[in-house]
Write a structure and sequence with these properties.
Helix content is about 50%, strand content about 15%. By secondary structure, it is of the alpha+beta class.
Length: about 425
């Protein structure tokens, strides 16, 4: 139910049409940026917005689990691939990333307080028949849908931003009745079909063709038996990647680049955090007093009917915790420390730290080769035009590509046979 709530804003006709228009326009004008230029951990990129492999995998698995729950039977990854679910999920995430990138470009933002108000006001996140938001029931919903509070709130914030853009453009525009009728017929129309399968054996024994018949068929279809023209070609690739191996980078330049970007080669501090949400500050204070008196955090959780999985936020970095008050408390505590009651977005909270992985920075020796290649590639981009002019000068003097490559420190590639369409004889 929570996952369905996340996507509710994009389920209307106007929102779907808007997402389709954005996706189509993106495919027409920006498809080259989707599957190239992104980091190794990204499956697609829209403008400055990347779709990470982890995010794609998580949403893909969520969809598989939802289908399994709806059908009442296991839905395997093999079945999902057969139905093209992976492409459907990727297309949906590309459309969402298009809206996210548009929101960034427009400078749109939603505060954490506004997200919290929207969650508390959402009837779908309340107990059946209840008129008030219940933090305990909210946590129960999250667990039932295999979600953590930070992940849900981050997704809800993105959904609200997308809804702002879709609402601004779509508004209350109603589609034409003829379009609605056509869409309804397309979705709902059913037909009964009767057919007879006629196999090859129904033709009976077919005699072998005569030589005259074969010759006549060949004469009538000569073009289908024509072999294309093949040519042997030599190519000289003039790209930054081709030039980079020949670019010299001094050790001092590599070290200077490392010193400027030490944060890039480090991992932030990570902490294993547990959290218990209380309905009010008094309950949270009573629990904090019991912990000071000697009870453990797990005992407090067990007394409230919560398992270790229910209170576990996982091993997180500071930015993973949406609520800044909770993040500050969690990353200020010592190991095995428990916070005082924190006024969170959905009630008073106690957090407990069970593990601390300190921030680390990779030593220069481990990353110098990567930096050297990057610097060489950057310099190769700047030298590209000069190298092109040198090649043209050599060609003008009558040198072959092989001679030019040898003189300028480049490499050629030879293809023995290729036709006009770029295919080889095999």
């Amino acid at each position: 139910m929570v996952l369905q709530t996340l996507r509710k804003g994009a389920s209307g006709f106007i929102a779907k049409a808007f997402l389709l228009l954005l996706t189509v326009s993106f495919l027409v004008w920006g498809i080259a940026d989707v599957f190239r230029g992104q980091s190794a951990r990204a499956v697609a990129k829209v403008g400055d917005t990347e779709i990470s492999a982890d995010a794609f995998r998580q949403q893909y698995l969520d969809q598989i689990q939802q289908i399994g729950r709806r059908t009442g039977r296991p839905f395997t990854p093999e079945q999902a691939r057969a139905f093209g679910l992976d492409r459907q999920v990727l297309n949906q995430m590309v459309a969402e990333a298009t809206l996210d990138d548009t929101a960034k470009a427009l400078g749109l933002a939603i505060s954490d307080e506004e997200v919290a108000r929207a969650v508390r006001a959402n009837p779908a996140l309340r107990r059946p028949g209840a008129t008030e938001f219940d933090p305990a029931y909210f946590q129960q919903l999250l667990r039932a849908n295999n979600l953590t509070e930070p992940r849900f709130l981050a997704a809800e914030k993105q959904r609200m931003l997308r809804q702002q853009i879709a609402s601004a453009l779509g508004g209350d525009v109603a589609p034409p009745a003829v379009l609605l009728d056509a869409a309804h017929r397309y979705e709902s129309e059913q037909r009964a079909v009767a057919y007879i399968a006629v196999g090859a054996t129904a033709a009976g024994a077919v005699p072998s063709p005569t030589d005259e018949q074969l010759q006549a068929f060949f004469n009538a279809h000569k073009i289908t038996f024509r072999a294309p023209e093949y040519r042997k070609i030599t190519a000289l690739a003039l790209t930054p990647a081709a030039l980079a191996p020949w670019v010299q980078v001094a050790d001092a330049d590599v070290k200077a680049a490392y010193d400027r970007n030490t944060a890039r080669f480090g991992t932030p501090e990570r902490r294993a955090v547990q959290q218990i949400v209380f309905s009010n500050a008094d309950e949270a204070q009573q629990a904090a007093d019991k912990i000071k008196a000697g009870e453990t955090f797990d005992q407090i959780a067990a007394a409230r009917g919560l398992s270790p999985k229910d209170i576990d936020l996982g091993t997180v970095v500071r930015s993973d915790l949406i609520d800044p008050k909770i993040a500050e408390a969690a990353f200020s505590l010592p190991l095995d420390g428990t916070s005082a009651p924190i006024p969170g977005a959905f009630g008073s909270v106690l957090v407990h730290v069970t593990k601390i992985d300190p921030a680390q920075i990779q030593p220069f020796e481990q990353v110098q080769d990567v930096l050297r290649k990057e610097l060489a590639l950057d310099r190769a981009r700047r030298e590209l035009l000069d190298k092109h002019d040198s090649i043209e000068d050599e060609r003008g003097s009558g040198a072959t590509l092989a001679e030019i490559a040898q003189k300028l420190g480049l490499q050629t590639e030879t293809i023995d046979a290729v036709d006009r369409s770029g295919r080889d004889p095999t």
